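Try it yourself: sequence plus adenosine-5'-diphosphate, in.
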Amino acid sequence: MKKWKDTYDLVIGLEIHVQLDLFSKAFAPESNAAEAPANTLISPVSLALPGTLPVLNNSYLDAAIRLGLAFGSEIQEACFFDRKHYFYADLPKGYQITQDGAPFCKGGNILTFIDGRIRPVRLDHIHMEEDAGKSIHDLDPDHTLLDFNRAGTPLLEIVTTPDLKSPEEVSACIDAVQQMVQYLGISSANMEKGMLRCDCNVSLKPKGSDTLGTRCEIKNLNSKRHARKAIETEVHRQIAILDAGGEIEAMTMSYDAKSNKNLPIRDKETVHDYRYFPEPDLPVFYISKETIERNRRALPELPARYFGKFNEEFDLDPDQAVLFTNSLAEATFVSGFLSWGPDPKFLANIYVQKIRPWLAEKGWKTMLVKEKKPAIVKYCNLVENGQISASSGLQELLPAILENAAADVDELARKLGLLISADTGSMESDIHSLLTDFPAKVKAYQGGKKGLIGFFMGELMRRSSKKPDPVIAKSILEKMLSR
Ligand code: ADP
Ligand code: MG
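Structure, out:
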């Protein structure tokens, strides 16, 4: 993979299709539930029976506007829908309602996290489109089965400029889209369930050239792994052609995971003239300033804001900041948690090491941690004041605090024998009785076997009721041994 990068630049543009978790379909009233027995969620509108008319679902438009605003795009004042025609068995209407001529939103940026930094990927536009039904080829040996539940489900298609340079960036960009729609609560964006799919447009150009090469499009990638593999495979295919002096032929392909190959989609129907024309059943519509502002007010704090907060305000390293930004629920919780009083970096560390895994185990019931705020703050103070050691605190006391509902932290620390004592008087008497118990070892030490200090320290720690401060204990021990 190294050498071709000296000769070519890889250029990738994405078309990401997100299926929205709305209550009803894009232009029809029936349920949009993701999982239901086949062909139970169909209305005459979705089947385009004569006399039916589509009506735009308002919550679909709201979700669309929110995503546009979240990416900093420009919401268009006037937009309309088009019909995109093709013939396929799972497309009962013979066309999809989409936006070709006047999408609702243009420009903006997907802010991706790459190598601990935010890198914007420019958007060309986002448009609204209803989905087709589903053809199922692998359930019956002789027939293709059709499920029309998906017909008419609301999609948003996010189209980037050819701005991406590597499969890693593609993956980060998909992550960012998933994260954003999850923050907005408009889609689970689960790729395994087909809630997010991605077309990758791939081309190569001579290194440093301003002119883009001819692109090939790999359709319908349903995992980040497949997207990465499909791009890598496509790069090698194109390099072989270009190195041999050939030209790339624009092509639409589909990735075959079994053979790890991109296969051209050959069927005549998709060598397309979609015969777009404005959808006559839906009038041109206008998005008012009020509608835009209403949706702007409904936006949560967005991932980049949280990242900035964690990285700059709390001065955490970028990897931690990215981790905490993961989901809206986690970001909200952590930003509250880091403000509890103790050093935010210290809090961030105990969160990553103990609290986060514990929460994951408890199904992210953050309330369980919030109600332990006084105990956790107390714990932090004990460590900060050197009353317990950071490592034994983390391994023993903090887990005990998490597991015990109404825990008195001092009491717990004492029970676990973790309180460090700087009481030199009691230390001296402990050491005195220790040395009396092991006269032979004391002799050996005094005779030169200085390694025995480890034995004495271990023994002292084991016997002492209050945990002695190891540094102080060692110095007293050495003094008393050399008497
Ligand atoms: P369509 O695929 O519907 O014909 P466009 O021509 O607008 O639509 O292109 C769609 C996608 O192709 C966009 O994501 C864009 O970034 C990408 N793209 C366009 N030109 C190139 C290129 N030369 N190399 C890689 N991707 C490209
Ligand atoms: Mg395309």
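One thing you can check immediately is this: Residues 2-295 form one domain.
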